[in-house]
Amino acid sequence: MITMAEENGADGPKLSEIFERGWKIQRNVEKSDEPTGSQKLQDQVKSGMGLLDQAAHMVRELQLFSENEELQEVATCNIRYLLLPALMSDLTMRHMGEDRLPLVQKAKDYLTEFLKVCRAYGVTSEEYQSGDSSKAGPTDMAAMSRQREATIARFRQQKENEQKLEAMRVSMETRGEDDEVQREYYTLLLQKWIYSAFRELSSIDQELEILHMMANRQKGKQDSQPQQQKKAEPHRKPLKPFILTRDKLQAQVFGAGYPSIPTMSMDEYFEKEVREGKIPAEALNRVPEPTEPGSYNVRRVVPDEAAEAERKQEEEDEKEERDDEERLRKQRDFDDFKDDHRRGWGNRQNMG
């Protein structure tokens, strides 16, 4: 089986070379300090995804794995290819595409496939339970306790595996190791990615829930607009012409803006004003007919306030003519006071 994998690259890159190049890119991206949205990092992500996808296609063609075999039956150099779905999921989650929902769903499918293969080969016996709060029933404290204990156990095991993996990786790169050490190294590597898969799936489920909610909300807005238009069109009534109140009143006061024919005579107008109580009946004066075209001798009606003011003014004039001594004396005294006292003399504190 190893010979088949190596011979597949006789006329091109070998499976091992393609896988190692893609795996190296994934490690570099994972350790990179570049922003996730930077063009440099995204180019690396796309390159790594292409190499790993090519390697996965070659693994399917070569049929390196079977559901009927156990991990002990798999060649040591082929165990690392079981990591392909997990590595592809990691790069897919780092890929910044226009539509986020398909990318996240694709990453979840990769991890689900990875855990399925690992259970089939006996690497793990755990199965991921999707935490869908909308479908959950009453709180099961026992289940929550078991889940918490399993998470703590995986975390402790993960810490031990990381330390051991680092030591074994350095040893394999420097002096090389035998087949048993390499098999143990790849097995521990699978367990490390299994722990990461459980942790990542929980985060992916939360993101998918938000993305689906946003997609449904956007779809609902788009669907509601045509429906509202369709419902409104059959019941729409024809628009009627209307006149704004302000414009109507303005036209009544200033006219329509062009010469118009009178609607009533002067006599009719005065009679109308008397009926409405705007002009006293005794103050009504008939307008005589004009002796010449365009000439009217109209007598002006003085309102009560104006008549009262005029009457008071006449009384004042009469008093002055009668030389009211008391008023004249007070006025002269006040004039003398103003001559002797300048304005503002009494305001010592600058008040008022």
Q: Helical proportion?
A: 55-70%
Q: Would you report the number of β strands?
A: 0
Largest sheet: none
Number of helices: 11
Cα-to-Cα separation, first versus last residue: 112 Å
Q: What is the H-and-E element order?
A: HHHHHHHHHHH
Radius of gyration: 50 Å
Summing up helix and strand content along with how strands pair, one would put the structural category as mainly alpha
Proportion of beta-strand residues: under 5%
The stretches of 5 or more residues where confidence is low (pLDDT under 50) are: 1-7, 133-138
Average predicted local confidence, pLDDT: 77
Q: What would the principal axes of the Cα set say about the shape?
A: elongated
How would you briefly describe this protein structure?
It contains 11 helices and no strands. It has helices at residues 2-7, 15-31, 39-62, 84-94, 100-120, 141-174, 179-232, 245-254, 266-275, 304-321, 325-340.
Question: Your description of this structure?
Answer:
With 352 residues, the chain is an all-alpha fold. It has eleven helices and no strands. α3 packs antiparallel against α4 (84-94) and α6 packs across α7 (179-232). The chain is elongated and about 145 Å long. The N and C termini lie far apart (112 Å).
